[in-house]
Amino acid sequence: MEFRHLGRSGMLISEISYGNWITHGSQVEEEQATACVRAALDLGITTFDTADVYAGTRAEEVLGRALAGQRRESLEIFTKAYWPTGNGRNDRGLSRKHIMESINGSLRRLQTDYVDLYQAHRYDYATPLEETMEAFADIVHSGKAHYIGVSEWKASQIREAHALARELKIQLVSSQPQYSMLWRVIESEVVPTCEELGIGQIVWSPMAQGVLTGKYLPGQPAPAGSRATDEKSGAAMIARFMEDDVLTRVQQLKPLAEQAGLTMAQLAIAWVLQNPNVSSAIVGATRPEQLEDNVKAAGVKLDADLLKAIDEALDPIVERDPAKTESPLQRP
Predict the structure, then answer these.
(1) Percentage of the chain surpassing pLDDT 90?
(2) Which pTM was predicted?
(3) Residue 200 near residue 287 (C-beta atoms within 8 A)
(4) What molecular functions are annotated in GO for this chain (predicted)?
């Protein structure tokens, strides 16, 4: 495993991080989920990303139990708040009330006294940013989190939050956006802003919900049991990539991966790690052997000719519009 600094912070995180968005507590049984966490640890992954909303808070519980007994100082545990975690009017958003209640709930479920990174899961238009950042500052100053980050925020929002964080003497060090060969909406605005401010990207869905593994073929039904066939596994999110023109072009990556001595999944993960502003790529797994394949992308350098060939194959279907980075205008 290779390690990178998270932005310009002093904290090192594994290039491949383990996320449990749609696996723990919903898609797979706990025994299997625990086996995946143990495999991640054995393979050198030290960075684990979750959120209070995943599987209705159950994902944090499963991760907490799976990591129990590990040396806490050797791990980097990340979680997030924003999406609803209950039926109450204040069980959502980034108000001081919800943030303070959310961090306490997350720490209890994760069985830890602190998280290394606490993230705003989306931007909350209903709460003044000053209120949100002051709550985050109190959490950091109380020792319940070391750093703060955001997820799916626009460049202008990140810049404003970073300025407030400096005033409050806390470190906003990360952005967690979707990023892959097919989804490059952060490249024109978010990445340059973050490079300037010393913020690193922890990217999710580097394999475009599995499309970049090449297992989905144009003109053919999705394989049984795959994410595209399971609503609990994010079928709605993968739908945007399930068009025949996209799948046809993705198949053109197979010979490129073979020439590089990589699997399609490894090529996809290695590709996002070529961006120097990316600190880590989040992968999930339902089986330990998936992680064994994925971690081989760490430390891989793709040459300029290969990167050019990837661009030529995918260019007509790549999404680059920065407006696609957006949060709900109203709390869900």
Answers:
(1) 80
(2) 0.92
(3) no
(4) oxidoreductase activity
Percentages of the chain per state (helix, strand, coil), in multiples of 5: 45, 15, 40
Can you tell me whether residue 102 is helix, strand or coil? helix
Q: DSSP class of residue 293?
A: H
Q: Could you tell me the end-to-end alpha-carbon distance of the chain, in angstroms, rounded to an integer?
A: 38
Q: How many CB atoms lie within 10 A of CB 287?
A: 13
Burial of residue 228 (CB within 10 Å: 0-12, 13-18, 19+) is: buried
Tokens read off for 178: 């979707």
- Catalytic residue numbers read 54
Task: Report residue 24's pLDDT band, with 50, 70 and 90 as the boundaries.
Answer: low
| Fold adopted by 11-324 | TIM Barrel (3.20.20)
Report which of 109, 3, 7, 96 is spatially closest to residue 56, judged by C-alpha positions. Answer: 109
* pLDDT for position 27: 55
Give DSSP secondary structure letters for 14-63: ESEEEE-SSSBTTTB-HHHHHHHHHHHHHTT--EEE--TTGGGGHHHHHH
DSSP state at residue 168:
T
| pLDDT for residue 227 | 57
> Which pair of tokens denotes residue 282?
């989040």
Burial class (CB in 10 A: 0-12, 13-18, 19+), 140: buried
Handedness of CA 45, 49, 55, 61 (dihedral sign): positive
What is d(CA 280, CA 272) in angstroms, rounded to the nearest whole number? Answer: 9
Q: Which residues pair with 147 in a beta bridge?
A: 117
* Res. 102: pLDDT tops 60: yes
The per-residue pLDDT for range 195-209, each reduced to its tens digit, is 999 999 999 999 998
Q: What is the pLDDT of residues 109-151, one digit of tens each?
A: 999 999 999 999 999 999 999 999 999 999 999 999 999 999 9
Q: Are 173 and 6 within 8 A, CB to CB?
A: yes
